[in-house]
């Protein structure tokens, strides 16, 4: 893989069921089991799907007009499937976007359906990866015993 294509995040345990995710740019956020206000991993997956498509749609439509409202809600069902494994199904991404009256707003409204389709079909790395599937390798490395 080229350096331009490589992505990474690091997760560090802070206590039982509580973690901090960090990116290479210095950003961090807490995550956990859902027993406090921290995002759960499933909520982060849903936020990643919403955020990825939101960025695509926002960049395309806001070149025409600044939205007066822009929100995205992702819903889905966490199930245990026939193999006994957990997964999400019925994932739905709902955009609520409005633009001001006038020619610029009209151009933005006209671009909205196409931008949603472009994001879904080719731009959003997150939802495309979920839909197409990608192998996930789980490995361990030897850690220090603290001696």
Q: What's a quick, concise take on this entry?
A:
This protein has 3 helices and 5 strands. It has 147 residues and is α+β, with helices and mostly antiparallel strands.
Write the layout of secondary structure elements.
Layout: E1 9-15, E2 18-23, E3 28-32, H1 41-61, E4 69-80, E5 86-98, H2 103-123, H3 125-132
Antiparallel strand pairs: 1-2, 2-3, 4-5
Helix pairs in contact: 1-2
What does this structure look like?
The protein has 147 residues and is α+β, with helices and mostly antiparallel strands. The protein has three helices and five strands. The chain has a three-stranded antiparallel β-sheet with strand order 1-2-3, with no helix packed on it. The chain has a two-stranded antiparallel ribbon with strand order 4-5. β4 and β5 (86-98) form a beta hairpin.
Query: How much helix is in the residues?
Result: 25-40%
Strand content: 25-35%
Largest sheet: 3 strands, antiparallel
Mean pLDDT: 95
Number of helices: 3
* Terminal Cα span: 37 Å
The stretches of 5 or more residues where confidence is low (pLDDT under 50) are none
Q: Gyration radius, to the nearest Å?
A: 19 Å
Descriptive tags:
single chain, 147 residues, alpha+beta, two-stranded antiparallel ribbon, 3 helices, 34% helix, 29% strand
């Amino acid at each position: 893989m080229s350096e331009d294509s490589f992505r990474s995040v690091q997760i560090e345990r802070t206590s039982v069921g509580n973690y901090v995710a960090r990116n290479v740019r210095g950003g961090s956020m807490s995550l956990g089991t859902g027993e406090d206000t921290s995002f759960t991993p499933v909520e982060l997956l849903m936020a990643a799907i919403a955020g990825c498509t939101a960025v695509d749609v926002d960049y395309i439509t806001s070149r025409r007009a600044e939205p007066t409202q822009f929100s995205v809600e992702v819903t889905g069902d966490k199930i245990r499937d026939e193999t006994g494994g957990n997964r999400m199904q019925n994932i739905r991404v709902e955009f609520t976007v409005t633009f001001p009256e006038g020619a610029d707003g009209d151009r933005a409204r006209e671009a909205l359906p196409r931008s949603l389709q472009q994001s879904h079909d080719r731009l959003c790395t997150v939802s495309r990866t979920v839909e197409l599937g990608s192998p996930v390798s789980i490995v361990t490395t030897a850690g220090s015993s603290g001696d």
